[in-house]
């Protein structure tokens, strides 16, 4: 099925989707500050995949992924676009493959990686516990 939205409107919609300082990223950073984990760096371009949060001294990185864009196995991640499938499905598959390559590269460099999915941000206590376990192990 062709895209129902004009190319100009689609471009405007996509331009509004931020890649940095998103509300999920901010929520994770607030949780980290609440746990007294500071000293992290944001969006380190010198690391594979440009992790959203990197603790350089600890060699630990956190990626915060949107379930739809990175094909998580939750309800939102399994949802499929209704139009322009020939564009969106390969794009999401490429995102998933690229994420896998970035994780492998980070592990090869000796980094520990935590991926936090958008759907996991609903439970604040569970998020804080997961971050604490990851950063103290």
Strand content: 5-15%
The unreliable regions are: none
The CATH topology of the domain at 20-84 and 112-137 corresponds to Endonuclease, Chain A
Superfamily (CATH H level) name of the domain at 20-84 and 112-137: VSR Endonuclease
CATH class of the domain at 20-84 and 112-137, please? Answer: Alpha Beta
Structural notes for this entry:
The protein has 137 residues and is an alpha+beta fold. The protein has a domain at 20-84 and 112-137: VSR Endonuclease (Endonuclease, Chain A), CATH 3.40.960.10. Helix content is 45%, strand content 12%. It contains five helices and four strands; from the N terminus they run H-H-E-E-E-H-H-E-H. It has helices at 7-15, 23-34, 75-78, 85-108, 124-136; strands at 41-42, 53-55, 60-65, 112-117. It has a four-stranded mixed beta sheet with strand order 1-2-3-4, sandwiched between helices. A hairpin with a 4-residue loop joins strand 2 (53-55) and strand 3 (60-65). Helix 2 (23-34) packs across helix 5. The protein is globular. The termini are far apart. The mean pLDDT is 90.
What would the keywords be for this entry?
Endonuclease, Chain A, 4-stranded mixed sheet, alpha+beta, 137 residues
Q: What is the topology?
A:
Layout: H1 7-15, H2 23-34, E1 41-42, E2 53-55, E3 60-65, H3 75-78, H4 85-108, E4 112-117, H5 124-136
Parallel strand pairs: 3-4
Antiparallel strand pairs: 1-2, 2-3
Helix pairs in contact: 2-5
């Amino acid at each position: 099925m062709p895209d129902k939205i004009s190319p100009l409107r689609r471009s405007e919609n996509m331009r509004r989707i931020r890649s940095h300082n998103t509300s999920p990223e901010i929520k994770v950073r607030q949780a980290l500050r609440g746990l007294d984990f500071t000293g992290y760096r944001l969006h380190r371009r010198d690391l594979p995949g440009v992790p959203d949060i990197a603790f350089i001294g600890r060699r630990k990185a956190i990626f915060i992924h949107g379930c739809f864009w990175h094909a998580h196995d939750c309800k939102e991640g399994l949802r499929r676009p209704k139009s322009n499938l020939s564009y969106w499905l390969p794009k999401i598959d490429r995102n998933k493959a690229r994420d896998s390559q970035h994780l492998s590269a980070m592990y090869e460099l000796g980094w520990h990686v935590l991926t936090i999915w958008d759907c996991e941000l609903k439970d604040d206590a569970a998020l804080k516990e997961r971050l604490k376990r990851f950063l103290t192990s």
